[in-house]
Design goal:
- This protein is mainly α.
- It has one domain.
- 72% of the residues lie in helices and 0% in strands.
- The mean pLDDT is 91.
C-alpha cells in the first residue's frame, strides 16, 4: 500500500504557503461578508496540517 502522507503533506504545505503569502501581501483581498483575513487563517491551518503530514511521512521513512 502506498503512503500518501508525504505527497499530501507537500501539497497542503505548498497551498498553505501560497495562501499565507496572499493573505500577508494582499490584505485588501478579503471575503465580502467578513473583516477576517480568510486567506491568512486558512493558509495557516493548511501549513499546520501539511507540516504534521510531512513529519509523519518522513518519520516513517
Amino acid at each position: 500500500m502506498w503512503d500518501l502522507r508525504l505527497p499530501s503533506g507537500l501539497f497542503f504545505t505548498l497551498l498553505g504557503l501560497i495562501l499565507c503569502l496572499t493573505g500577508l501581501l494582499a490584505p485588501g483581498q478579503r471575503a465580502p461578508l467578513t473583516e477576517a483575513n480568510v486567506n491568512l487563517y486558512a493558509g495557516a491551518g493548511m501549513l499546520l496540517f501539511g507540516g504534521v503530514m510531512l513529519w509523519l511521512g518522513l518519520k516513517r521513512s
